[in-house]
Amino acid sequence: MEQGYIVMDVGGTNIKTAVLNYDGIPVFRDTFDTQANESAGNIVNNFVSIIQRLNKKSKLDIIGIGMAFPGPFDYENGISYMQNLGKFDQLYKLPFKKLLQEVIQKEGEFKKNIPIIFGNDATLFGYGVAHFDSVQLGEKILCITLGTGCGSAFMENGKISNENGIPKNGWIYNVPFKDGVIDDYLSARGLMRIVDEMKLKGYLDGSELFQASKAGDRKALEVFDKFGEIVNSAITPFITLFQPERIVFGGQIAKSGKYFLESLQKENRNIDIESLVDSSLYTMQGLLIELKKYS
Fold it and tell me: Does 72 sit behind a cis peptide bond, omega within 30 degrees of 0 on the bond before it?
């Protein structure tokens, strides 16, 4: 029987999933509700139910399960430290990985114990881009995810770079910027901060801004233009430091890339800069890279 992997990109609202074959090609993909505001027991049971459904539908010999989670999270031990973020509060400091393993074993879903791993969503996105969307593995790629927060990964030779000056783990979210940190500005909160500063009404979130921009709404386009200037200002020091050959944006806000990347592209004409509409697949393929270490 062909072997495969169950992989998940976990967000606050939805869990994007896939079953990948050994080469990282999706056998199929599906999306589920996170039930992120339920009790800890219900959250665990929901994940187990999803795993069971994916396993049954795949008709493959599943040899690993991987989950991409936002932080704060102890990825090695599978413990969530998210608190007061409106998602997974009930899992705070609980051994989520151990609880999953116990229920899965009790249910007898798999004939043998299989590894369950966790990883940072932005780091995994970087691995996925470097290994599955790169002309050559040795490329220097700066990967940025824009959504609820800002994630990042500095990739070189298919691995996280540890060059001098690069923040720990390649994460720039907590680097001081303006009157806060980068995460305050390169995020959904940052977008809505601009809306508030412009005293605009009628835009509830980034999705509505995106739809308004598609329709040619002048004010919405101006918001994204200002957001692009902030993105440019925030990451230019890291471009200077790392000298990437490519910059790849992922995450929900990256779908609006054509409305805010012009400023960055103008100042970095020698760098290939792109935004990916479907960044979840690369995140899940990044999980595959990690899972193969256990098989």
Answer: yes
